[in-house]
Structure formats: C-alpha cells, structure tokens
Amino acid sequence: MTEIFLDTANIDHIKEILEWGVIRGVTTNQKIFLKEKGCNFEEQSKTILKLVEPYPVSLEGPNNLDELLKTAREYNTWGENVVIKVPMLPDGNGLKAVKILESEGIKTNVTAMMSVNQAFLAITAGASYASLFFNRIRDSGDNPVEVVKQSRSIIDEGGYKTKLIVGSIRKPEDVVEIVSANPHIITIPYKILKQMPYHERTVSTLEEFDRAWIEFKKAEKKQ
Ligand code: E4P
C-alpha cells in the first residue's frame, strides 16, 4: 500500500488537495520554496505544519553538518509533525546528522538519493524516511523501478523502521510505474495530482449519462 504526499509549499494547493482526503503528508525543498517568492519561510512552514497536522511535513536543512543540526533543532520546535530533510552528503555527514537527530527524537528524511547503496545507508543509519528521486535516477541512466524495489526489500527483509518515499514525479504515468514498485510513499507535485482524476472516456461517459438523465426526466411519470 503506497500513501500519497503532496510535493509543494503552496498553501492554497495544500488546502485544496487536503479536501480530497487523499494526502497523508507534505514534502518541500529549497526549489519548491523558491516558487513561493516573497513568503517568509518560518511563517509559511508553520502555516503548512498546522494545516497538515497530524500528518508529517518535511522541511529541508542546509548542507553543512553544524548548520544542519542547528537548523533541524530550531525547525523541530515549530510543530509536532516536523520532519527534517537531511541531504545525502557525499562525505557521510548526512548519515551522521541522521544518527544524532534521531537519537534526540527528531524525525529525519534523507533526501536527494539516487542509488540503492545510498538508501541502504540511510535505512541502516535509522532515518525515519528515505527519499529516492525517480526521474533524476532515470536521467542518470539507472532503472528507477529497480532502485525502488531493491530499497523496499532491504527495509522489509531487515525489519527497519524507515519509510521509503519516491519523489521527482514529472507526469501522471510515473505514478503508475512507482506504485507498482511498492514504496511506502509517493510524493506528487500539485500539477500532476490535479491531472489524475481526469480521463477523457470518463468525461464522455458522464456526458452520456447526463443526456440520458435529461431524457428520463422529460418522460418521467408525474406523481
Ligand atoms: C522530494 O521530496 C523532492 O521534493 C522532489 O520530488 C524533487 O523532485 P525534482 O526532481 O522535481 O526536483
């Protein structure tokens, strides 16, 4: 069973999609916040955390270990549902951050991961979440479905607590591919999620039913 998160920092989009009853969390990053130009990071994050509560909201920290720890501890005071996105740093310092923060009771989501080896390390370090970037993996020439499947088996076979998130979704068809690889979570951008209820045959079927109803009502026996 794969749950859906929304990959956005836009408050109107979060409000709209929460009403659908399909999302179980929100993920953000620096690029996503850049789209919300002019907002205040702390204020916007606190509003999102409140809206999405009790579901988790991932806020990304900086790439330097000391800064990351300081920032994570600060963000963590903003709500019960804060998750700190920890970058998979090439020198292993991201893993170190996971170990420290998780031991302090701060939930982490290791992000920007492109390989099974990276996921294996994040899982073993005790991250609450591990994020694989589907289309960026494909861009680098690997098979993202296999990366997701293998990472999920490491978690299941080892009995680890980590929940696997798959992001970097570019079209509705990606969702189908990802769900078949069975991660715990898929994080979908608003633009893609909005396209998912649509099917042209559904629209034409509903129009056909509408026409039938009008005809039925015209001929309906009066009481
Ligand atoms: C996931 O948590 C990330 O925010 C996101 O999906 C990154 O995807 P991109 O490749 O669209 O930047």
Which band does the percent of strand residues land in?
15-25%
The unreliable regions are none
CA(first)-CA(last) distance: 49 Å
The hetero molecules present are: erythose-4-phosphate
| CATH superfamily label | Aldolase class I
Question: Can you lay out the helices and strands and say which pair or pack?
Answer:
Blueprint: E1 3-7, H1 11-18, E2 23-27, H2 30-34, H3 41-52, E3 57-60, H4 65-75, E4 82-87, H5 93-103, E5 108-113, H6 116-125, E6 129-133, H7 134-139, H8 144-158, E7 163-167, H9 172-180, E8 185-188, H10 190-195, H11 200-219
Parallel strand pairs: 1-2, 1-8, 2-3, 3-4, 4-5, 5-6, 6-7, 7-8
Helix pairs in contact: 1-3, 4-5, 6-8
The protein binds erythose-4-phosphate.
Erythose-4-phosphate binds at residues 7, 27, 29, 31-32, 111, 131, 133, 135-136, 167-168, 187.
What's this, in brief?
The protein is an alpha/beta fold and 223 residues long.
Could you describe the 3D structure shown?
The chain has eleven helices and eight strands. It is of the alpha/beta class and 223 residues long. The chain has a single domain (3-222), classed as TIM Barrel (Alpha-Beta Barrel). Strands 1-2-3-4-5-6-7-8 form an eight-stranded parallel beta barrel, surrounded by seven helices. Helix 6 (116-125) packs parallel to helix 8 (144-158). The longest helix is centred in the last third of the chain and has 20 residues, at 200-219. The structure holds erythose-4-phosphate. Erythose-4-phosphate binds at residues 7, 27, 29, 31-32, 111, 131, 133, 135-136, 167-168, 187.
